[in-house]
Structure formats: C-alpha cells, structure tokens
Amino acid sequence: MRHQTSSSNGEEGDTLQQLLQVVANLQEKSEEQICLNLEAAYRAEFTINRYPNPSPTSTQLTRRHLKHHGISEEEVSTEVYNGSRLYRSRHAELASSGRDASDLNWDDLIWNSMVSVKIGESSPRTTFFQPAINEEEIRTNLDLLQEDREVAHIKEYIAKVKGSQRYNARIFPKKLKNRNLVLKRVLKDNTSNKLTLN
Q1: Are residues 24 and 102 in the same domain?
Q2: Is residue 165 part of a domain?
Q3: Per its UniProt entry, which superkingdom is the organism in (predicted)?
Q4: pLDDT tier at 134 (50, 70, 90 boundaries)?
C-alpha cells in the first residue's frame, strides 16, 4: 500500500514538473508573440498614418495578391483603405486556419489593410439610364424653373400695385399751392392728457 502511494507521489511530482515546464515555455512563447504582435502593429500603424492613400506600390501588391488568389480585377471595384479592422480580421483568420501570429509578413499586412469590395447587381436606375432623355428632362426642368420665376415676379408686382392702391385709397391726394396752410404735426399741450380731469 505504501509503495503505491510513494509511486503515485513520484508521478504527481513528475507531472507537476512537466506542467511547470509547459507553463514556462508558454510564457516565453507568449512574450515572443507579444513582441511580434507589437512590431507588426507598429508597422501597420506606421503604414496607415504615413500613407493614408494607397501608394502605387500597394496597388501593385494588391493586384499581385488578386492574381495569386484567382480573383479578376473586374470583380473588385475599389479597395477601401481600412486599417482599424486590420488586426481583428487577421487574428480571426489566423485562429480559424490554426496558424501562429508570427506568420504575419509585410504582404499580409498590406493586403489586410485593403478591403476589396465586389460589384453587386446594378440598380434599375442605373440599368435603364438614358443620357439623351436625361438631358431633355434637365432642359424641361430648367424651363419650368424659369416659368416659376416669371410667375413669382408677376405676383410680386401685383402685390406692390395692390398695396399702393390701398394706401392711396386712405389718403386723399390734393395738390398744394403756395401759401396753403399745411398741418405738419399735432402738438398736444398739458391740458389734454390722460391724467387731467374731464
């Protein structure tokens, strides 16, 4: 009985040492991965901040990558420069493929900072677009706009005429001659105000 207990203690000690060794290896490996990830992140940030627009070299890299993966250039309308999703998408891809983060290289960084957008089906508006009819409609709209402006000008003139007629109806026009008395303004004296007695 005692012999079995000591052998099991020995096995537990060996297992414990193996676990400690595995943990130490993992710590070393994780430090290396952290360094690699930081270096790759720094390179990506440098590329994104330094070159906000894709340079000709990155366009050439993109074309080469498309050709390598068998994607025709007609399928890709634009490459959207998107650095914020770089690491999330790349790590998801690495996790699904079972590869290590140290597999990142410069081509992968450039490619993953470019998001390819495929052209879908065109809308009916773009399908049935006819430039000649469109130009006619634009001319018609401009003519209608000119007519609306003319109508607004006529209405404005009518409103001015009506206003002047209303003003002239209240005031009786009278021609003045020399030596006519004209009342310029009425001056109220102290006897006629609100506080005086009736």
Answers
A1: yes
A2: yes
A3: Eukaryota
A4: confident
